[in-house]
Amino acid sequence: MTEQEASVRDVGMIPRRILVGFDGSPFAEQAYEMALNLAALCGARLAVVSVATLPEPPGEVETQATLESATEHYEAVYENLRRRAEDRGLTLETRILVGHPAEQIVRLAASTQVDLVVVGHRGRSRISEWVSGSVSKRVVNHAPCSVLVVRGR
């Protein structure tokens, strides 16, 4: 590593830990692919988090049932993601959480001290985003680190 590369890494311009929000959508797939490329390029650690939402109002029984269902669903999906990471010489860490997606992504980013969060953007209408909010927008506004929003093609 050159002195200039070391200097850039020291000031946090090259991510060492990347977290990807993943819900299985085509937009999340594109975000994962971007994060995979960045992690391989930068030699960064890569983690994926999926967040299962709860029925309202949530109770302890519903939380456990939701987590079990999400775990069963995402474990099959994660196998494909792991293979793709291994093909590039990376190890993929995975987490499944329960709650509001943006809130859980931001909390995990803070507690694991990631350098970059990567999320997909669904490209919904402005009215739809105004009414229900946007996960990517909330992550951008509240994350403790840089956020890369990958727009759907």
Please tell me about this protein's structure:
- This protein is of the alpha/beta class.
- It has helices at about 5-10, 25-40, 60-85, 100-110, 125-130, 135-140, and strands at about 15-20, 45-50, 90-100, 115-120, 145-150.
- The protein has a five-stranded parallel beta sheet, with helices on both faces.
- The longest helix is centred in the middle third of the chain and has 28 residues, at about 60-85.
- The termini are far apart.
- Mean pLDDT is about 85; it is low at about 125-130.
Q: How many individual domains?
A: 1
- Report the count of strand segments: 5
Helix content: 40-55%
Let me know the largest β-sheet: 5 strands, parallel
The arrangement of helices and strands along the chain is HEHEHEHEHHE
Mean pLDDT: 85
Bin the strand percentage: 15-25%
Terminus-to-terminus distance: 35 Å
CATH class, named Alpha Beta
- If strands are numbered along the chain, what order do they take across the biggest sheet? 3-2-1-4-5
Low-confidence stretches: 125-132
Described by its quaternary structure, the protein is single chain
Q: Which geometry do the CA atoms define?
A: globular
CATH superfamily, by name, is: HUPs
CATH-defined architecture: 3-Layer(aba) Sandwich
Radius of gyration: 16 Å
Number of helices: 6
Q: What secondary-structure arrangement, pairings included, does this model have?
A:
Blueprint: H1 3-10, E1 17-21, H2 26-42, E2 45-52, H3 60-87, E3 92-98, H4 101-112, E4 116-121, H5 126-132, H6 135-142, E5 146-151
Helix pairs in contact: 4-6
